[in-house]
Amino acid sequence: xxxxxxxxxxxxxxxxxxxxxxxxxxxxxxxxxxxxxxxxxxxxxxxxxxxxxxxxxxxxxxxxxxxxxxxxxxxxxxxxxxxxxxxxxxxxxxxxxxxxxxxxxxxxxxxxxxxxxxxxxxxxxxxxxxxxxxxxxxxxxxxxxxxxxxxxxxxxxxxxxxxxxxxxxxxxxxxxxxxxxxxxxxxxxxxxxxxxxxxxxxxxxxxxxxxxxxxxxxxxxxxxxxxxxxxxxxxxxxxxxxxxxxxxxxxxxxxxxxxxxxxxxxxxxxxxxxxxx
Length: 277
Hints:
- The chain is an alpha+beta fold.
- It has eight helices and eleven strands.
- The chain folds into two domains: 1-127, no CATH class; 152-273, no CATH class.
- A hairpin with a 2-residue loop joins strand 3 and strand 4 (70-76).
């Protein structure tokens, strides 16, 4: 089954889990609301949309598409805030095979979105990658969250490109570089406190992943600290943050058991990985 791909432009920022390019959405103002209501029509093979049969329901901060006996797709509920930082009401739903997002508060609303995914069976019940804890951080600090909403993209793309020999992206040097870049860009784009809170939330959410391990979390926490330090040392220079973290990733120490080393990492001048590739 194809991915459920909401897309966006004109201030609407949406992406799927894999950062794939999307066709443009169609923002429009519904006659019965002052808000923004972008929709994603099923127009071609690059925008397969969500499965048309079944019903929609809200569950645990998401709207999900259901068929008898199975959840077939889920879309994380977006958040929005206005120019003053006040929360903006958001409604998400399916109309036939079309995803529709309605942002109240008038055209000044700035929407934010977490990844949309499609899955079969009970996958969404097992692992929901939008992250409840990360969402709470964004709800508490929406302006900072909006400022660094795109930090994940270059972190994922650059780290994967830097290590073409790696067939996976977890627990290896690709992972090490990605976390460093992500935390560095979040720090540079906001401040140390926000980056640390978001990284901590990410690790808590990650425990729901069936592949979670304590060693992986210790590794992540170490390289998150490095990313924050790289961001602090390179204020106003995001490209230097990226290149520094990629260099650290290439030189990453392979530490299968992170609790055997000093994890305080006060200077943030290296990263570690459990394995490679």
